[in-house]
Amino acid sequence: MKETVELLEADDESRESESVGMPLMVHSVVLAGGSGTRLWPVSRQRRPKQLIPLVGEDSLLQSTVKRVDNLSSGIQVNQVLTVVCNEEHRFETAEQLRVCGKPHRIILEPSSRNTAPALTVAALSIVARHGDGIMVVMPADHSFDDIRSFQSAVEAGVAYAEKGNVVTLGVVPDRPETGYGYIRLGLTIGSLNNGGIRQLDGFVEKPSFEVAQEYLDSGNYCWNSGIFIMCASVWLRAIHHYHPEISSACDSAYKNGSSDRDFFRLEREAFESSPSDSIDYAVMEKLGCRDSICAGVVVPIDAGWSDLGTWDAIWKIMNKDPQGNASGGNGMVIFEGASSTLVHSGDRLVACVGTSDIVVVETPDAILVANRSAVQDVKKLVERICDSHVELTVNHRKVHRPWGYYDSIDKGERFQVKRIVVNPGEALSLQMHHHRAEHWIVVRGTAYVTRGEERFTVSENQSTYIPLGVVHRLENPGRIPLEMIEVQSGSYLGEDDIVRLEDSYGRR
Question: What's this protein's family per the entry (predicted)?
Answer without folding.
Answer: Belongs to the mannose-6-phosphate isomerase type 2 family.
